[in-house]
Design brief:
This protein is of the alpha/beta class. The chain has eleven helices and seven strands. Bound molecules: S-adenosylmethionine.
């Protein structure tokens, strides 16, 4: 079960405000690790309202993009179809059929990371890549939301850390951890005008008073700050072992 409901209200807020207008910086970060050869298969796990899947079909012609999402409300509003019902522990794909998996701002909702890792080991081909885009516990730096809603860092610190994920993902090796800059909005004023609390897990999980205080800080900053808002989310890249490697030792 996810940390928030992902009901119709959340899905509508997410679709309205969380699709990046300019995702281009992520393209280079992805192709550094994934060769988008025609015929390869890219899984968008926890695809939400489908914006990344739609972008991938534009960026990578010939790549088969498979979107999987557990929330019916998110699937109903998806800009990418088809989008399959499923979750990190039950992926509706055959064994050894996926070349890369994109897991964007999802990993903190996954209740059992080891079960997810086992399911990914099943569906991924040897040598396939796992691309986890997220904010991780202990790494709020470079994320605008946490600068103004400082109490939300308390929520972030309940998310999995990079070490938690590495421990759960036995049989995968970390290739790279980096902060990827992205153009989130043209200004803080735009964020003030469009912010929807329901679209952000950390903002749903602080108190109403904390949210109101954060909003005041954000509004005050927006009066004096100009220029685009650039956020830096983490990208954790892991790989399955190539064909022929022994399976991880038990225990
Ligand atoms: C913040 S949204 C991100 C959506 C999309 N990946 C994106 O970046 O636009 C988190 C998504 O994770 C999904 N989710 C929750 N629990 C999940 C699980 N156990 N396995 C896969 N996805 C899950 C939610 O339903 C929701 O659509």
């Amino acid at each position: 079960m996810a940390r928030i409901a992902y009901n119709h209200t959340d899905a509508q807020a997410f679709a309205a405000t969380r699709h990046l207008g300019d995702a281009s910086s992520w393209r280079a970060a992805i192709v550094e690790h994934f060769d988008p050869k025609p015929g390869s298969r890219l899984l968008d796990l926890g695809a939400g309202t489908g914006s990344w899947s739609r972008t991938f079909t534009e960026w990578f012609p010939g790549v088969e993009v498979v979107a999987v999402e557990p929330s019916a409300a998110m699937r109903d509003l998806s800009v990418f179809q088809p989008i399959l019902a499923g979750d990190a522990a039950a992926i509706p794909l055959p064994d050894s059929s996926v070349d890369a998996v994109w897991i964007s701002t999802v990993i903190h909702h996954v209740p059992d990371l080891a079960a997810a890792a086992a399911e990914l080991r099943r569906v991924l081909r040897p040598g396939a890549v796992v691309l986890i885009r997220s904010a991780f516990a202990g790494r709020p730096e470079g994320i605008t939301q946490f600068r103004y809603f400082t109490e939300a860092v308390r929520v972030l610190d309940t998310y999995p850390s990079v070490a938690d994920i590495e421990e759960a993902f036995a049989g995968f090796r970390t290739v790279k951890l980096s902060k990827v800059p992205q153009h989130t909005a043209s200004s803080l004023q735009e964020i003030v005008a469009t912010l929807r609390r329901e679209a952000h897990t950390p903002l749903q999980l602080i108190t109403d008073e904390e949210y109101a205080t954060g909003l005041e800080r954000l509004r005050a900053a927006a009066e004096t700050t100009t220029g685009p808002v650039i956020d830096h989310l983490d990208l954790l890249v892991m790989r399955t072992d190539p064909a022929g490697s022994p399976p991880p030792a038990a225990g």
